[in-house]
Amino acid sequence: MTVVVSHSSNPEGRHALVTATAEARSRGTRLVVVVPTSPSGAAVGAVGGALAELRDRLAQVGVEHDIVEATGDLAETLVLTAARTDAELIVIGLRRRSPVGKLILGAGAQRILLEAPCPVLAVKS
């Protein structure tokens, strides 16, 4: 069993990672971090060394973890990773939206919620 989290270098991604780390610790499970990357392997929206920094941060908090790089569709990678690792929870970060924006949930988040093989915790920053 695992906790799977989508992480990027924005506030939503950082908040999701903190929440997922706490969930993995409290459940006594492994944390699987899905990081969107470009086809060249560079973390999207982050400067070089972002993956090494992430690995160091996770090692410091002492939670067992794996990092999965998503070069394609992030929602699909999250759902497939959750199924492959027998996840008991997926954690995603959402940004605050305007009143009109609240009528429409992001397409990726909606796909994750509808296709996930386990509960999904949406964390807003």
UniProtKB/TrEMBL annotation:
Domain of life: Bacteria
InterPro entries registered for this protein in UniProt: Rossmann-like_a/b/a_fold, Universal_stress_UspA, UspA
Domain UspA positions: 2-124
Pfam families to which the protein is assigned, alphabetical: Usp
Stored CDD domains: USP-like
Family (UniProt): Belongs to the universal stress protein A family.
Protein name: UspA domain protein
Gene source species: Xylanimonas cellulosilytica (strain DSM 15894 / JCM 12276 / CECT 5975 / KCTC 9989 / LMG 20990 / NBRC 107835 / XIL07)
